[in-house]
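Why do we care about 3D structure at all? Because function follows from shape, and shape follows, mostly, from sequence. That is the central idea of this module. The next example makes it concrete: a single protein chain, its amino acid sequence, and then its structure expressed as tokens.
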Amino acid sequence: MELQQLQMSYLPDQDRLLIKFSFGEKSSSSRQEIHLLFTRRLTMQFWPTLLEAMAKQVKLGKPGAAHASAEMVQMEHEASVAQMKDGGNFDAPFASKAESWPLGEQALLPDDIQFHVHATAAFRMEFIVAGGKKNFEVAMGRRLLHGFCKLFQDAVEKADWGFTLEMLGNNSGSAPEDAPPRLLN
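And the structure:
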């Protein structure tokens, strides 16, 4: 199954982000959907780890430019987002044509997200849900991955959680890693 559509929105009544994935075959009109919920805490843990994994993929693919991986990710991000905006990809409404919900119709709340990074393969995110029976994995090419990041940034901005999600190499705004340290008693 191939990722066909992606949507992110803020649910103020739950104070969570809702991420909708729509999967299907190119040759078929049937679609499957999986929905995820992200809390503020999960978002703060997810974003820096996502950026590290993206930088790692650049380092693996271009070892000679490992010292500039943050800048390369930033440049790829800007170019990919510009291409997607020019192509109208961000303007298309989410068309919910789900014929099946392989993990159930209720949105899942992941406990953990693991990244599988290779130099030449698609970037993969594995969303792990409590109990392990509803885990799933999404593979994204670089352009789609940067589109995912942009949607995520926009959704967090709408959530108004007191931080912004910045790409590597961009020092403006506040990032989740700037949050005060937690003390354990």
